[in-house]
Design goal:
Blueprint (H helix, E strand, L loop, with lengths): L1 H10 L1 E2 L5 E2 L10 H14 L7 E5 L4 H11 L3 E4 L11 E7 L6 E7 L8 E9 L3 H13 L2 E11 L4 H7 L4 E11 L2 E4 L3
Parallel strand pairs: 3-4, 3-7, 7-8, 8-9
Antiparallel strand pairs: 1-2, 5-6, 9-10
Helix pairs in contact: 2-3
Bound molecules: guanosine-5'-monophosphate (5GP).
The site of guanosine-5'-monophosphate (5GP) has 18 residues, from strand 2, strand 7 and helix 4.
Family: Belongs to the purine/pyrimidine phosphoribosyltransferase family. Xpt subfamily.
GO molecular function: xanthine phosphoribosyltransferase activity
Pathway: Purine metabolism; XMP biosynthesis via salvage pathway; XMP from xanthine: step 1/1
């Protein structure tokens, strides 16, 4: 997605060999116009699917997932990372190792918002080693739901997330695919 690649080049900050900071438009401050374009792009790419709902993980997946849900007219559920007092005991959980924070989080979805035999689309901000998406896949499997596909805003192809998902035969659509960071520049894959 050209406009996203241009924005990454303009506003993305390379923190080290494998982390890109995009907190001026996606992870902290959010650009709603760009998010809407991202939602419309995912809606186009997944127009052939029969999704009933969209799943993501708080907090950075919420903005692109909500815009995709708006474009596809689907409800959006985000897995929580902290069990709140208002969350009932009737929940699905999975353990996720956080790539950026280097801690294990439990992600939680209330059973009222995910049902057996539903078709689910997963949307997330980044694909690195695939742990966040794997956690959502584990929850969907527990619930007896089917995965229609995974939509990723920014994939880093030098990490092993895609390989992990392809081993599960999962369809992945990524809007920007980063091959490497070189001399302080983001290099996208040629495809
Ligand atoms: P994974 O579970 O695929 O290893 O990592 C995915 C999660 O880690 C994403 O949801 C995102 O929040 C975070 N993440 C992974 N790589 C990056 C990165 O380069 N920059 C930022 N800002 N977040 C990342």
């Amino acid at each position: 997605m050209k406009i996203l690649e241009e924005r990454i080049k303009k506003d993305g900050l390379i923190l080290n060999d494998d982390i890109l900071k995009v907190d001026s438009f996606l992870n902290h401050q959010v650009d709603p116009t760009l998010m809407m374009q991202i939602g419309e792009e995912f809606a186009k790419l997944f127009a052939d699917t029969k999704a009933d709902r969209i799943l993501t993980v708080e907090s950075s997946g919420i903005a692109p997932a909500v815009m995709t849900g708006y474009a596809m007219k689907l409800p959006v559920v985000f897995a929580r990372k902290h069990k709140s007092l208002t969350l009932p005991d009737n929940v699905y959980t999975a353990d996720v190792y956080s790539f950026t924070k280097q801690v294990n989080n439990q992600i939680i979805i209330d059973k009222r918002f995910l049902h057996p035999d539903e078709n689910v689309l997963i949307i997330d901000d980044f694909l690195a080693n695939g742990q966040a998406v794997q956690g959502l896949l584990n929850i969907a499997k527990d619930a007896g739901a089917n995965i229609e596909g995974v939509g990723i805003v920014i994939e880093k192809t030098f990490q092993r997330g895609r390989k992990l998902l392809e081993e599960h035969n999962i369809r992945i659509e990524a809007l920007a695919r980063i091959a490497e960071f070189k001399n302080g520049e983001v290099i996208f894959t040629e495809d």
